[in-house]
Amino acid sequence: MINSILKIENLSASYDDKVIIQNINLEFQKNKITAIMGPSGCGKTTLLRCLNRMHELTPNAKVSGKILLESTNLNDNFMELNSTDPILVRRRIGMVFQRPNPFPNLTIYQNVLAGYLLNGIKLKKQEADEIVEKHLNLVALWDEVKDNLKKHGTFLSGGQQQRLCIARALAMEPDVLLLDEPTSALDPISTQRIEDLIVELQKTVTIIIVTHNVGQAGRVSDFVAFLYLGDLIEYGLTDTIFTNPKNLQTEKFLTGKIS
User: Fold this and answer.
1) Residue among 136, 137, 135, 113 at smallest CA distance from 124
2) In terms of Cα–Cα distance, which of 10, 28, 175 is closest to 90?
3) How far apart are alpha carbons 126 and 104 in whole angstroms?
4) Is this model's pTM higher than 0.70 or not?
């Protein structure tokens, strides 16, 4: 891709000698939304977790291949002392999980700043206030919570909690935002708000979303990568793959014949 920001080369991942993904080669375009689709157990979440070095937290995890963020190999010397610091990787590649998970012991205000607090980054109050307001506005949550910033994040509804988690990830100003089935635990109205937010956010950040929902991928993504049994089967523009898939397995998934 001409304007790619993230590139993976021959990426394989396993744990306990069980191969989850194998020899994946893929590029992600800057300020575009890429949906990673495929049946349950095909390796979607593992691929996502590899991109910000979270897969290595799994016991007996192994990863091989390259993960290049603007030519820097984030997977260099995996699990060795002189490797790229995974904490620094996660600042540049943020992640939001399947279920909303605001820190229950932190206020809404503190949740937005959690990345700074956990990394020991000290902020002046004015700077912290600006970060909180900016990123709650980005996720269209500021007007809903500005009078309740001292309440715990768990005070919010499920959809609001998920937007708070997205604000928390964005507050570190990442280059890439990973979303792992971010609406699967939400009601239809909250899901639509998150989808609208995702489309809006691509102006400022590159987004990679794992979704089992074919309709969602069609609504929000520019590109689609289809995984099956740990292999990358097909990748391309969403419109092209949805209307003219080249692979029979892709067509079966899109038409609900495999899930």
Assistant:
1) 113
2) 175
3) 24
4) yes
